C-alpha cells in the first residue's frame, strides 16, 4: 500500500507539473479590469530595482498604472527579451545596454521611442548611441567610458601623447620607482580591443564609418587602411617593448596599479574606488594620443527600451520620457549605480564629483560603441589578431590585413 | 489473526480505507489542477495543447482508478517526466533544425510586418510638436489638434485634419473638447492604448505630407513612413526610391537587388541547414583537425581519469591503508567544486607571467601553458584529469567493493600473482559494471563545452588561417562559434542541425560501445 500511494503521489506531482508546463506553453497573463487601469512590466537588474521602486510608486499614484518590476540578471535580459517578445508574454520595458540595439531591431522586438523635444536635454553621445539607422529607440540613463588613470606621485603631469607616457614610464622603471611603464588589462588569447580602441582610433582607424544620419554604417568597415596598419605596427612595437603584455589580465593590472607599481592604468570608473581605497594619489586624464586624431574611447550607454508588442505603448512612453527621463530619477540612478547620468542637467550636477567630471569629459569626446549587429563578428577576429600581433606571432601588417579580410567576408556573408 | 487476513486482502488488490482516501485526495488534486489548466487552455484556444492535456488527464484517471494495471501505475510518472523534459525537447530541437529560426527570423510573418511598419515611421525632421486631445464619436477615435500657431483642427483615421471653430480651450490655448465629441479621460486613453497608438491622422489629403501620431495621448508628432505595406500584393514599397520588397519564400521581404528588410520571420527550410553544416567553409576547413582533437580529447580524458581513479580506488580499498576516510574526502574535493569555477582558477594558475605554476613550481620560467598549441592541449587534458578523476574514483571504489573477496582469495590459493589476479579476474569483473559509465563519460567529454570555453575559449588561434577555429576547439565549441558567433548572429536552426549531427556521431560510438559491453557480460 505504501508503495502504491507513493506512486500516486509521484503521479500527482507529475501531472500537475505537466499541466502547468503545458498551460505555460501558451497564453497571456490576464489583465484585471479592477484597480489600476493597466500594468507595465519592467525587467530590471537588482541594482536599479531599488531606485525604480519609488518612481513606480509615484507613477501609479499619478496615472493609476501599476508598474511591476521584475528583477533579472542583467546578462540574461537581452536574449530573454528577444525570445519572449514574439510569444506575447514579454515585458513592456527592459533596461539594457545600447550595443544590444542592433540585435533588438534586427529581431523586430523593440519599438521606436519618440523623445520629442526632450532629446536635446540628453548628452549627444547618449542619443547617438540609442539611435539605429536614424531612429531613436531607447531612453538613455547613463554613460560610461574608459580614461587614463594616473598615479600622481609617480607621474606628476598628464601625458599628451602615448610616446610621452611611455617615456615617463620607462624612466620610472629605469629609476626603480615603477615596475611597469604602462598598464592595461588584456587576455592571452583575445587581448582586449575595447580597451585598446582609443589608441587605434587616434591613428585613424575606427571600426565602422558613419552614414548620413550620423549612425554606424555596417557596410562601411574602416578597420583597414593605412591607419589600421600603422596601429598594427605600433602594437607589435609595444608588445616587443613589454608596454603591452597579454598575460596581464584586468585583475592583475588593477592589483599592480593599486600597489603603486605603475604610473598609468588605462581603465574605467569601475576601478577607481579600489585605487582610492588603496591610497593611490590618482588623477583621471584624457587618453594620450598615438597619432594625429584624438584618442576617443568607446562610450557605453545604458537605458530603457520599449517592446514592439507592448499593449501599453502610451503608458510605457509616458513612464520613460516623463518619469525616468527626469533629473531627479537620473540623479538617483547615478547615486546607486555610480554611472554618470545621460541627462545633461543631472550630469552637470553629478560633476561635483571630480572623478565623474573627468571621465565625463573624456566620454563627451568619445564615440558610442557600435550598436550594429555586424559588430558581433568583429570582436573575435579583432581580439585574437591583436593578441597575436602583441605576442609577435607574425608580420603585424599581414595579420591585420588578414583580419580585415576575414571580418569583411563574414559581414558580407551575413 | 485479523491483521494477517487484512494484509492478505491488501495483497490481493482490496486496498485499505486509508489507501482509498489517500488515492482519492491525490487524484482530486491532480484533476483540479488539470481542469484549471484545461480551462485556461480552452480560453486561449490553444487546441493542440488542450488535446494533449486532456488525454494525459484521462489517462492518469483511468490508470489509477482501474484495479490492476500495476506496471502502468509505476511507469506513468516517469514516462510523463520523460515526455515533457526529454522527448519534447529533442523533438523540438529536431524541428528547429529544419527552420531558419535565429536572429532576424525569430517570430511570425505578421509580427515581422508589424515591426517593419513600426520602425519605418520616421519623424519629419524639425517638425513641430502638436498638442492633442483624444476625442470619440460613435466609437470612432479622433485627434483634436492644437497646432503651434494655436489653430485647432480635428481629424481621424483616414480623415485628414479639418479646421474647427467651436472647440473649447484651456488656459494655455490648447483645445480640450469640441461639440458632438466626447473627450477621453486619462483613464480612457490608457484603456485604449493600442488603438490610440496605432491611430495615424493624415495632415492633408496628400499622404506625402505625413500623418500625426501620438506617443503619449497628449502630444502628437508628424511622421512620414519610409515604407508602405500593400496588403493585397503582400509587398513593401520604399516611398523614397520606389524599391519594391516582396516575399520570395526566404523568410524576409526582399528587393530585386537582394537587399532585404529586417526583421524577417521563421519559415521551414527543409534540409538547408544540414547542407550548410557540410558546406560551411568555417566548419569544413578545420573539420579534420578539430574532429581528431575532439576524439583525442574525449578518449584521453576518459582513459587518464579512469586509470588515475582506479589506481587511487585500489589503494584506498586496501584495508592496510591508514586514514582512508580522510584521503577519500580529499580525493573527492575537486568533484565538489563547480566545474567552471575550477576552470577559472586553473586559468589563473596557468598565467604565463603571474601564474603559480610558472612562478613557483617552475621557478619563474615563462612557459606559455595556454597560448602554445600543444601546451594548451596538454593543459586542457591536465585540468580535465584533475576535474574528472574523483568521479572515476567513486565508481571504481563502488565496483571494487562489490567484488567478493573470496574470489581473490581463491585466486591467491590457486597461486595467481597479484598482477595476474588483477588483470585476469578483478579488472574484467570491474569492467562489467564500469564500462557503461566509461561510455557515458566519453559522450560527456565529447561535448565538454564548459571546460574548453572557460580555459582557452578554443584558443590559441592561428589568426592568419582566417577561420575562427583554435588549437583546442572541439566540435561543440566550433559549432558554437559558427552558429552563434558569426554572420548575422545566433542561428538556432544551424545549431540544431549540428546538434543532430553530433548526436549521430556520439550515438553511434555509444551504441558500438554498449554492444561490446554486452559481449563482456556474456564472457563472464
Q: How would you describe this protein?
A:
The complex is a heterodimer of chains A (414) and B (524). By secondary structure, chain A is α+β, with helices and mostly antiparallel strands. Chain A has helices at residues 2-25, 46-63, 74-84, 101-106, 124-129, 162-174, 193-202, 225-240, 250-258, 272-277, 313-324, 327-337, 344-350, 354-364, 375-390, 396-413, and strands spanning 38-44, 65-71, 93-97, 110-111, 131-132, 135-136, 138-144, 147-151, 208-210, 216-221, 264-267, 282-285, 298-307, 340-341, 367-368. Helices cover 47% and strands 16% of the residues of chain A. Chain A starts with a helix and ends with a helix. In chain A, strands 1, 2, 3, 4, 7, 13, 14 and 15 form an eight-stranded mixed beta sheet that branches. A three-stranded antiparallel beta sheet of chain A has the order 11-8-12. Chain B has three domains: 2-96, no CATH class; 121-225, D-maltodextrin-binding protein, MBP (Periplasmic binding protein-like II, Beta Barrel), CATH 2.40.430; 278-523, MetI-like (MetI-like fold). Chain B contains 18 helices and 15 strands. In chain B, the strands form three sheets. In chain B, strands 1, 2, 3, 4, 5, 8, 9, 10 and 11 form a nine-stranded antiparallel beta sheet that branches. A four-stranded antiparallel beta sheet of chain B has the order 12-13-14-15, with helices on one face. The interface between A and B is large, with 88 and 92 residues.
Key features of this structure:
heterodimer; A: 414 residues; alpha+beta; D-Maltodextrin-Binding Protein, domain 2; eight-stranded mixed beta sheet; 15 strands; 47% helix; globular; B: 524 residues; Periplasmic binding protein-like II; 3 domains; nine-stranded antiparallel beta sheet; 18 helices
